[in-house]
């Protein structure tokens, strides 16, 4: 997958993309990430990329010229007929979910546009943006953090990015539920012991315990997920029992 990021702060994004799992994935060519400074495409002598909003109001708006030229330049680097989806990060966008990340992981690449100030000129959105995406119902100072969240969320689903492909099978939101509790050594820490079942070697009982733990975590922390999760009759019985114990 190829991801091109258009930003006013390339060093910020590059620091993220050069380290940890994403950095190793780039070194292995499991993912290609290119970062472009929008300011490099500003035609004015001061390389400014923003201006006052028409109609008045607080703050500044990113100007259309640098954005349009940056987008055109990046798109020109793709083979003829290749037009990656352009995503703009905005509080007005669809909220990113794990299901969306799985869909996006099947694409060949993206152009990610990071806005700033009060946003970008609407004409850029109308002409170039394929989809607006939000990472939550709150406002950030710029689009770089959402872009990094998007890259991390999608890239880890690509072959060769994580050390083990099994890592994504049972984690939170993959099945529609939150993940079960996890433990590692030592067996006893500050007087708290690892549940005996996890030491038993009985894989059937371990799987049963993990399912109950997953259902309990979801019930206590994100009960809204249970309404849309694919639950078995046994799951529903477990949830009913958990609810009765919580009530008492």
SSE layout and pairing:
Elements: E1 2-7, H1 10-17, H2 20-27, E2 32-37, E3 50-51, E4 61-62, H3 64-76, E5 85-95, H4 98-104, E6 109-113, H5 122-128, E7 131-134, H6 144-155, E8 188-189, E9 192-193, H7 203-221, H8 233-247
Parallel strand pairs: 1-2, 1-6, 5-6, 5-7
Antiparallel strand pairs: 3-4, 8-9
Q: Major sheet: size, sense and barrel closure?
A: 5 strands, parallel
Order of helices and strands: EHHEEEHEHEHEHEEHH
Radius of gyration: 23 Å
| Cross-sheet strand order for the largest sheet | 2-1-6-5-7
Strand content: 15-25%
Tell me what the structure shows.
This protein has 248 residues and is of the alpha/beta class. It folds into two domains: 164 residues, SPOUT methyltransferase, trefoil knot domain (Alpha/beta knot); 78 residues, Trp Operon Repressor, Chain A (Orthogonal Bundle), CATH 1.10.1270. Helices cover 36% and strands 16% of the residues. It is built from eight helices and nine strands. Strands 2-1-6-5-7 form a five-stranded parallel β-sheet, sandwiched between helices. It is elongated, with a radius of gyration of 23 Å. The model has no long low-confidence stretch (mean pLDDT 94).
Keywords:
Trp Operon Repressor, Chain A; 2 domains; 248 residues; five-stranded parallel β-sheet; single chain; 9 strands; alpha/beta; two-stranded antiparallel sheet; elongated; Alpha/beta knot
Short description:
The chain has 248 residues and is an alpha/beta fold. It is built from 8 helices and 9 strands.
């Amino acid at each position: 997958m190829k991801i091109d990021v258009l930003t006013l702060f390339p060093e910020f994004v590059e620091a993220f993309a050069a380290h940890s799992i994403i950095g190793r994935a780039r070194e292995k060519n499991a993912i290609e990430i290119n970062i472009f400074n929008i300011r490099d495409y500003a035609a004015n002598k001061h390389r400014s990329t923003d201006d006052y909003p028409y109609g008045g109001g607080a703050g500044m708006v990113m100007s259309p010229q640098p954005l349009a030229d940056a987008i055109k330049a990046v798109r020109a680097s793709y083979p003829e007929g290749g037009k990656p989806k352009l995503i703009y990060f905005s509080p007005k966008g669809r909220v990113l979910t794990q299901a969306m990340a799985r869909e996006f992981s099947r694409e060949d690449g993206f152009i990610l546009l990071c806005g700033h100030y009060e946003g970008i000129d609407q004409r850029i959105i109308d002409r170039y943006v394929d989809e607006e995406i939000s990472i939550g119902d709150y406002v950030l100072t710029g689009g770089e953090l959402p872009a990094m969240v998007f890259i991390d969320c999608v890239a880890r689903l690509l072959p060769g990015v994580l050390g083990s492909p099994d890592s994504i099978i049972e984690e939170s939101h993959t099945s529609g539920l939150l993940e079960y509790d996890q433990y590692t050594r030592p067996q006893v820490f500050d007087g708290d012991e690892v549940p005996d079942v996890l030491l038993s070697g009985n894989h059937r009982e371990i799987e049963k315990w993990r399912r109950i733990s997953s259902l309990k975590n979801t019930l206590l922390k994100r009960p809204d997920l249970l309404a849309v999760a694919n639950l078995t009759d046994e799951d529903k019985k477990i949830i009913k029992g958990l609810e009765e114990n919580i009530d008492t």
